[in-house]
Design brief:
Blueprint (H helix, E strand, L loop, with lengths): L4 E6 L3 H11 L6 E6 L8 H4 L6 H4 L2 H8 L4 E4 L10 H7 L2 E4 L5 E2 L12 E3 H8 L16 E5 L3 H11 L2 H4 L6 H9 L4 E5 L11 H7 L5 E5 L8 H9 L3 H14 L7 E6 L2 E7 L6 E12 L2 E14 L2 E4 L3 E2 L17 E2 L2 E2 L5 E3 L2 H4 L7 H18 L12 H8 L6 H15 L12 H14 L1
Parallel strand pairs: 1-2, 1-4, 2-3, 4-18, 6-14, 7-8, 7-14, 8-10, 9-10
Antiparallel strand pairs: 5-15, 11-12, 12-13, 16-17
Helix pairs in contact: 1-14, 7-10, 16-17
Bound molecules: flavin-adenine dinucleotide.
Length: 453
């Protein structure tokens, strides 16, 4: 039997786990995988992005646990590619390196006032309520009657829904306590979601839209006038096979429904863009403009009409997309914000591959990353078969290198200790887990078991 191929996978979100799984299933050559993450915890956005009240979706982590149990798998948490270990060092230690680092930041709106305190990217808000250790010091001031969420995708809907959940709805989730407190105690009355284009062009999906109408503590308000379609949208709706049609039906139901007088209102507005975020030293209002839709080069685009309005609000969440960031030593496509690649083979970089959001941009559901990672692994294994994965370095191991550098890495057993501690803390409170959210606590818990194993 041939020597095992040694592969480093950088980033332990869905793409990283699906890539690891496809690699570990290879029999000829057999493959050993070291899965590296900058956080002490694995699972990427499944732990720190997917909304805490969507526990059934977070349950995909059970499949990741099965991958981690395969022979040849190792996890190295608290190891950041680009700082703890460089790309060149990884190439010396491994036959191939696969980057699955996701999209680590947000796209900006490009309007004045965007940086005022109280104007936040959705990325930060989501990371905060999910317990990301880098975002716990962020002070989300929910002492306001109105929040405006800019964006019309599922992440925007997640933010809207989380703000509307009642204490009873939040109680059985793993939302961090500070966020539960802030949401429940907030005097919030209205959450406005702004869509630049019309209801037919909205990116959210029907189940997520439907869920808003099922909340115990919030009415959903849609202005029937927003559902009067221009000819291009009417045509697009007729051509649509599913999503837009179903979305439109749900929106019609909302528009026809009398509000029940629940404590909070979710107002879905379309054909509206922010012009400026206003306030003295903090967000106090948002200036918005009404748009109309026009066809340009076969696309339906929003054009401002000049009709403006100012909405008072204390918090603005900008949810207009996630964005990949460059990694030291690797090529980067500045326009698409991805690593340039051909089916996962990184352009102009030997023995280097990518998968997931950093390969194709932030789109698709968790399962989309599986097909995507399998495609990448197929290229990698084809290159191995063609004799192209020849390591230059003199061997050595990642753990030796990290120890030399004083990097306090967390192994899989360490993560299992964190997991067990979180689940144990959740159990008496009827919650799936109470997350450890501080770096020192995570490292301390992750280290305890690692050092005795
Ligand atoms: C708010 C939100 C909610 C979502 N909800 C759903 C949902 O309900 N259902 C659904 O199907 N999909 C959902 N998605 C989409 C889904 O989460 C993504 O498709 C998926 O997580 C992308 O996988 P990835 O592995 O490419 O990236 P990620 O999940 O982001 O994983 C990237 C990993 O790389 C690590 N990393 C980054 N940089 C480095 C570095 N330099 N060194 C080492 N490690 C690094 C990160 O810590 C992270 O663990 C949601 C996405 C978001 C943002």
């Amino acid at each position: 039997m041939t020597d095992p191929l040694r592969v480093a996978v950088v980033g332990s979100g869905p793409a990283g786990f699906y890539a690891a799984d496809a690699l570990l299933k290879s029999e000829e050559p057999p493959v050993e995988v070291d899965l590296i993450d900058r956080l002490p915890t694995p699972w990427g956005l499944v732990r720190l992005g997917v909304a805490p009240d969507h526990e059934n979706i977070k349950a995909v982590s059970r499949a990741f646990e099965k991958t981690a149990a395969r022979p040849g798998f190792r996890f190295f948490g608290n190891v950041e590619a680009g700082s703890s270990v460089s790309h060149e060092e990884l190439l010396e230690l491994y036959d191939a390196v696969v980057y699955t680092v996701g999209a680590q930041t947000d796209r900006s709106l490009g309007v004045p006032g965007e940086d005022l305190p109280g104007s936040w990217p959705a990325t930060a808000f989501v990371a905060w309520y999910n317990g990301h250790p880098d975002f716990q010091e962020h002070a989300f001031d929910l002492d306001t009657k109105r929040v405006v969420v800019v964006g019309n995708g599922n992440v925007a809907i997640d933010c809207v829904r989380m703000l509307a959940l009642t204490a009873e709805e939040l109680a059985p989730t793993d939302t961090v306590d500070d966020a539960i407190d802030a949401i429940v105690k907030s005097p919030l009355e209205e959450i406005v979601m702004l869509g630049r284009r019309g209801p037919v062009q909205a990116a959210f999906t029907p189940p997520e839209l439907q869920e808003l109408g099922e909340l115990a503590g919030a009415d959903v308000i849609v202005d029937p006038a927003d559902l009067e379609l221009d000819p291009a949208s009417k045509n697009a709706l007729e051509q649509d096979r599913e999503r837009a049609k179903r979305n439109f039906e749900i929106l019609r139901e909302y528009a026809a429904k009398e509000p029940e007088g629940k404590p909070r209102r979710i107002v879905l507005r379309f054909l509206t863009s922010p012009l400026a975020i206003l306030g003295e030293g903090k967000v106090e209002a948002i200036e918005i403009v009404k748009n109309e839709l026009v066809e340009e080069d076969g696309r339906i685009v929003a054009r401002p009409t000049g009709e403006t309005e100012t909405l008072e609000c204390g918090l603005v969440l900008r949810s207009v997309g996630y964005r990949g960031v460059p990694l030291p030593g690797l090529p980067f496509d500045e326009r698409a914000c991805v690593i340039p690649n051909d089916k996962g083979r990184v352009t102009g970089a030997e023995r280097t591959y990518c998968a997931g959001w950093i390969k194709r941009g932030p789109s698709g559901v968790i399962g989309t990353n599986k097909k995507d990672a399998v495609e990448t692994v197929e290229q990698l294994l084809a290159d191995a078969a063609a004799g192209k994965l020849v390591r230059q370095g003199g061997g050595g191991s990642l753990e030796e290198l990290l120890r030399e550098k004083g990097v306090d890495f967390v192994e899989y057993e360490g993560w299992q200790a964190i997991d067990a501690a979180e689940r144990a803390a959740g159990e008496p409170r009827g919650r799936p887990r109470v997350k450890l959210t501080a770096w020192d606590k995570l490292l301390e818990t992750g280290r305890k078991l690692t050092s005795t194993s």
